Every structure is written in structure tokens, then in C-alpha cells.
Amino acid sequence: MGGERYNDDKAPVSMILEAKHAVEGCAKVLGFGAQKYERANWRKGLSHTEICDSLLRHLSAYLGGEDNDPESGLPHVDHITCNAIFLGEMTRTHPELDDRGKVSEESDVGPDIDTPFEEAMGKVKALRVKENVAKYLHISPYAGMLVPMKADMEGEHYVFIDTDGGRYYVHKDNVTEEWVDPDTVKYYE
Fold first, then answer.
1. Under 8 Å between Cβ of 124 and 180
2. Is 178 helix (H, G, I), strand (E, B) or coil?
3. CB distance 72 to 32 below 8 Å
């Protein structure tokens, strides 16, 4: 019988090697950096935003159709991978270098941290009634259409009020919520 190991909560680090091409590419970028600066220069510490800036420059170049970094001749995706690893390491080993501009509660810069991303991007939350349910209830104007999120809830039902004052109760399971552009919402007053 062999020895025992208790590895239940330990990361299976060898799995990173399953992405052997990405690991090799990252190693080439590290080799380029070692020639340009010195080996493991980055381990001395880099500001978090400096890493993000580099990552974003390479990402922007890649998204712009450029495959290789002109300086190193290596793929931008390998520089992106390397910078992501740097950032992951710095957040754990050099938290004092976290120089992100954090929004305080008193600040009015940027959206409120509780504001959903979609809302911050000008989207509105709307409701869509399942078509078969809308037809059954003879509320076809609502079938598959978006209506304002402001519909009232009574228990587990949305209450829609049409222009004639009719009230329609639709169970929440028959309604989906979506983030949409404001001009796609059909408003019923």
C-alpha cells in the first residue's frame, strides 16, 4: 500500500499544462522580458493599473486586427496572458500596489456601485409576457412585447393595466425580465 495524500482542497496546478500552447507563449513573453529587464523583474512589484494598461494595449491591438507585438514579435494574446498572470500575482503578493481609482460612497464620479451595468449603459429593465399566455388571456398587445418594468407585483403575479383599465394578472414564471434599449419598449399607459 502506498502513502497517503490529503489534496481535496488543493488546486490541481498541473491542469495549467493542459493549455500547453498558451503556457509556452507566456513563457516566451517572460523570456523577452528577462532580456529587456532582468529575469523575474516583475516580481519586485508592478502597479495594478500599469499591468492593466499593458494588458489593455495588447488587447486593443489584438482586437484591431494586429496579431503580433511589433517590439517583441510575439503574439499579443501571449502578452495578454502574461499580464493577466502578473495581475493575479500582484493582487496576492503586492496589494499595496493596488492603485485603482476606487469610488468612495461620497463621490459622484461614475455610476453608483449598486447600479447594474446595463442600467449604467442606458438600458432599461422591461418585461416580456410569454406569447402563449398572452394569447390565452386575450392580452395579445402584450404577447412577446416588452412593457415597462413598472408593472406592479401582487404576490407571485405581475399586474398589467391596459389603456381601457383592464387588469391582467400573469404569474412570474410566464414573464421574463430583460435589459433593453429604451426605444424598444412598448409603453402602455
1. yes
2. strand
3. yes
